Amino acid sequence: MSALLEVEALSVHLRQDGREAAILDRVGFSLQAGSALGIVGESGCGKSVLALSLIGLLPPAMRASGAIRLDGIDLLTLTEPALCRVRGRRVSMVFQEPTRALNPTQPIGRQVAEGMRLHLRLGRAEAEARAGRLLDRVGLPGAVVSPHSLPHRLSGGQRQRVMIAVALACDPSLLIADELSTALDMTTQAQILELLAELVAERRMGLLLITHDLGLLAQVCSHALVLYAGHTVETATIPALLAARAHPYTEGLFASGLHVGTVTPGSVLPTIPGQVPPPFSRGDGCCFASRCPRMQPDCLPAQPPLVVIGDTASAEPHRVACLHPLIAA
Fold first, then answer.
1. What is the pLDDT at residue 262?
2. From CA 210, how far away is CA 216, in angstroms rounded?
3. Which residue range is the domain that position 234 belongs to?
4. What percent of the chain lies above the pLDDT cut of 70?
5. Would 286 be classed as within a structural domain?
6. How many Å apart are CA 250 and CA 145, to the nearest integer?
7. Does residue 258 have a pLDDT over 80?
8. Following DSSP, what letter does each residue of 20-70 receive, concatenated?
9. What is the pTM of this model?
10. Helix axis angle, 156-168 to 186-203, nearest 10°
């Protein structure tokens, strides 16, 4: 069965002051309908740039190459008018900050209905009626939150639910969710993730969940791709990744998170020393070498390729880009 989304050798380069640097370097993955893939990494690793590449919203100083095939159609080859017909209809995105993404002057019901009127050519009354039902489906029934409410009257979790309703308005094949957990309390965060899992199963969508928290992926995703400084450093199923991390960076992300029963009150949480290097300061060697506790001289000549570790015959192999992984190849 062919994948809903196939990303092949996707690179994004930034031009600035006569120089050029790679923000993403030959990233590739596939996603089936009805499944969810987690993209995980720190700020500055290229997660949001990857999302913007998929919907054709990169800033003018960035250019993408490679292939992004949605149901076999390469989105990178489409003209802007053709992309406009895809955005919101075939692929939608829930942006990181709903306060900035929502129009503060328009009622939430009208904002949910807008995409239906544009892409589905529905009249105002029918579109707003559907919008009301969709708001109810994402946990905002009219008895609790009126479709006539303005965004500033809603809580952060409610605004996030409105953004999900906006993204789902035209029943897209692919939903991209960028850092949904930002500024949400743990209870609301869990409710939003549970809602996404239900919607993926119910609507047979593909979901890309972008996050910095490896622990969140297990609630929604079946697979994960770990990005660091624009490179794919590890890919695996969620059970395999939670059982054992192969790349030192992935292990650092996992150790830095809050895991029930593993944190002693009053203790200092583990951290990854240093920071993600900016695009114009990245060398030719392993992208993580400057922060890696396992760095050795052979790490410096070039970025290691992704290789399979463990069961090479597995249909869903565990891959890592590291010459000295934590799991033996």
1. 58
2. 10
3. 5-243
4. 97
5. no
6. 40
7. no
8. EEEEEEEEEEEE-TT-EEEEE--TTSSHHHHHHHHTT---TTEEEEEEEEE
9. 0.92
10. 10
H or E stretch at 10: strand 5-16
Q: How far is CA 285 from CA 9, 21, 235, in A?
A: 19, 15, 20
Tell me if 255 is assigned to some domain.
Answer: no
Question: Is the sign of the CA dihedral 86, 91, 92, 93 positive or negative?
Answer: negative
Residue with tokens 């930034």: 14
The radius of gyration of the chain from alpha carbons, rounded to an integer in Å, stands at: 21
Per the CB < 8 A criterion, the answer to whether 69 and 29 are in contact is no
10 in any annotated domain: yes
Q: Do you know the residue count of the chain?
A: 329
Number of domains in the chain: 1
* 182 within some domain: yes
Q: What is the CATH number of the domain that holds 64?
A: 3.40.50.300
Cα–Cα distance, 233 to 225 (Å, whole number) = 8
Local structure of residue 143 (DSSP, 8 states): T
The position carrying tokens 């743990």 is 186
Residues 158 and 129: their CA atoms lie apart, in Å, by 19
Q: Would you place residue 260 in the very low, low, confident or very high pLDDT band (cuts 50, 70, 90)?
A: very low
